[in-house]
Write a structure and sequence with these properties.
With 628 residues, the protein is α+β, with helices and mostly antiparallel strands. The chain has 5 domains: 31-182, Immunoglobulin-like; 190-286, Immunoglobulins (Immunoglobulin-like), CATH 2.60.40.10; 297-380, Sandwich (Immunoglobulin-like), CATH 2.60.40.10; 387-497, Immunoglobulin-like (Sandwich); 507-628, no CATH class. It contains 6 helices and 34 strands. It has helices at 2-29, 189-193, 431-434, 501-525, 527-603, 608-627; strands spanning 32-37, 40-44, 48-56, 62-70, 76-82, 90-98, 103-109, 120-129, 133-146, 155-159, 161-166, 212-213, 219-221, 230-236, 245-247, 253-255, 262-272, 275-276, 280-286, 297-298, 310-312, 322-329, 335-337, 346-347, 356-366, 371-380, 387-388, 394-396, 401-406, 413-421, 444-453, 459-464, 470-479, 492-497. A hairpin with a 4-residue loop joins strand 6 (90-98) and strand 7 (103-109). Helix 4 packs across helix 5 and helix 5 (527-603) runs antiparallel to helix 6.
Length: 628
Amino acid sequence: MEGFRKNLKKSLVYGGTILAGFILFSSAASAATLFLAPSSGNYNVGSNFSVVVKVNSGGVPINAAEGTIVFNPNELSVVSLSKSGSVFNLWVQEPDFSNALGTINFGGIIFNPGYTGASGTFLTITLKAKAVGSTILVFSSGAILANDGLGTNILSAMSGGTYLLKTSSAVPQTAPEAPAAPSAPSGGVTAERSSIPAPVTKSPTHPDQSKWYSNNNPEFQWDLPAGAIEIWLVLSKKLSGIPQVRYSPPISEKKLENLVDGVWYLNTRFKTAAGTGPISSFKFQIDTGKPDDFEITRVDLDDLTNPRPELIFESDDGISGIDRYEIKIGEGDWFNIEPGLAGRPYKLPFQSQSPGVREVWVKAMDRAGNSASADTKIVVKSIQAPAIEIIPPKIKAGEIIIVRGGGGGGGTKIVLNVLKLKKTGHFGLGILEFAGIAEEKIETKLIKTIETVTDENNNFEVKVGGLEPGAYILRAYNEDRRGAISDASNDVLLEVEGKLFFTQFAEWVPNAILRGFNALINFVINGWLIIIAGILVVGLIRLLIKEIIPAIVREIKKFAYIFNDYKASGQLRKKGKKMQFEIKELYKDIKKELDLLERIGRHRGLHSDEKYTKKKLEKYLGLLKSLK
């Protein structure tokens, strides 16, 4: 029993020790900090002083850290940044600063086994005091990564500094002495490491680093250099993200899935026997969401006759931004407008100028190709339509008719369309009866368009002529100075008649008599010319009969002979092809017989009649061979 108690006591003590150690380790792991030394001090305006950026690993080995410090550029300016004495071996974010923006950026890596300590020097900043007062240096961002193979960020706190800047009568404090720089690794590792190439990353899904994509499953590829034993990756929202996820053996491609929208960086580096190479960063941008929903509003409701209705629409996209808007009016094609035209009245093109109701679609496209759309219906009302006065329903071919009418304002353009009726099945009933079949669909063809303007009394007058016999519709429109077009005027039917036979005959008889009389006079006066012309005609007829016609006949016969020869040669070619086929088949049969005799002769000698047959077959075979 006593032994049992001793063993139980020993177990409890041992377990408690392990638990306490675990608690202490966990506490230390969460206590890594970035801080400034000194964190306070008094300095003269116009003088320089130094502040050291320190890192406390919290008792856990670390292998990377980064940070950004901000300051008031009206009170301080950075003179220089020094890496001397730093515990960091490689800089993924070369220390830099901007006195205009008041920022200092840095990021470094420590080779295995990493750094463990409470006051490791990161960077020394030399500052110049510019104005009297209290000023501060503040960490705006930072990270400390544990050397655990996972890149765990164990940063728990960042402590800046407050400094009092005084006139020259104040006594300046001396900046802390920076630790000596660590010696370079032996064996020339640094020189060898510089020869390790940076990965050249490509993406078949997101090839252009400046563009946005709606695909949130990016794929990446790179070529592995000779001697690569590992590749390190990190997916980061920052360009300076340090690769921590290791693949051994190294992979040459990687696919990521279901990433959230935004700007991303895939940072990679190779490791060889000589060490790790430089970091390569590939930027890619993802936007899977469509732009915000929006509405279309018409703003010119006080004038619905406006031929270019004015609309307002605007969407927004908080990720990639609006690239363009696309618009479609009625049955027309889509067309693009710049995003800067949204949010203010946009005049539709003259595509919508004729009166009526049309549907308008607007589509907002973001830079990743996502879209949101809206639609509305717009009404364009007609301006005052013109009126055509009643005109004679029939005119004769060749006559000119004057079309008169009124409507619109003084100086308004009148457009008169002359349309010919294609369907004239009822035309024999007369133009007035023709008007009675208005319910039947009648096809028309626009023959001509005539334009004029109204006078000061809003009247117009148009001359129409040159119409062939048939049925026509006259139709007019008003067009004002804005380009607005009215509804059509009243339709006026017009019949253009051809001349009747007896009228044509009556006109022909006196003309024929007059022409005959003139011919007689000319014959008397110019009889000798007619005689000469007659002799020439007789000679021409004789030449035609004796020479030209026989020559034509000879050419026709020659052509007939050539045609017959060609036809005969065609038939001969057909027979030749058939005969050639038969020769080939006969050649095959004789060859088979000869082969049979050859086989018999190899087993026994051929009889005299067999030899005779073989000789004849060989002769025939040679003859057929020459004909093939």
